[in-house]
Amino acid sequence: MYTIIPPPLSQAPYVLNLWHTYSQNLATQTLHSDGCISILFVITGNSTIDNTRLSNSAYLVGPHTKSLRWHFSSQRQYLLGVRFTPLGAKNFTKTPLKELKNQCIELQDAVPICKHVIDALMSQNHPINEKIKILLQWLEAQFQSGMHCLPDAFLKVNKHINMSPRSIKLSELYDTLNISSRRVERAFSQTMGISAKELATLVEVSRARDLIKAHPSTPLTDIAHQLDYADQSHFIRQFKKVMNITPKQYRKRT
Fold first, then answer.
1. Which domains, ranges and CATH numbers included, belong to the chain?
2. What's the pLDDT at 167?
3. Beta pairing, strands 104-106 & 3-5
């Protein structure tokens, strides 16, 4: 259904991957947020991400604090997208990332892009390999004048959030690393557009989804305990905050 393309080595620090699809009758999908931003070119087809209607244009999907539902029309969808690393997001647009949080906007509202580039990427006449080449050339130009490092506070805290096997106590982490919470929040706001707490919640819910799918018979109370939640009600609240459904409802869907 989707073809994933790894970035060239020169863009690996900035781009997680590129992808494209040319499919019909796509089923409704859930987009699980990891706090990263992406761009989306809707070449043909109509769809809706939450309340944003997407049709024949280029969009910037900002960092989201909850999972999104992507509904497709029955017609054929021709889509091309790019997902960015935190370094790529920080260097991609001069618009403060916090202003893009939970937003899906026209790409040209956030990033200057030449008309001939848009025309080539949105054209049905250019083969996909030519589109990828044009897109990578444009991205290369976007990143050439950017900063090539991330704030130290972000790197340290982000590493611990992603490596922790259970829910993480940020106040304890800040004390351990001897970093002020204000410094961390400023670094996360500049780099991802969401707070460290919001990212930690996304990571925790991602681990919960993995455990629920991997252990369909394990009681949800045991899964909450494995994730180091003090009680199941807290686990349910965190899960529903991101997924808009409870862990029990999610288990029935999978």
1. 3-144 (2.60.120.10), 152-253 (1.10.10.60)
2. 79
3. unpaired
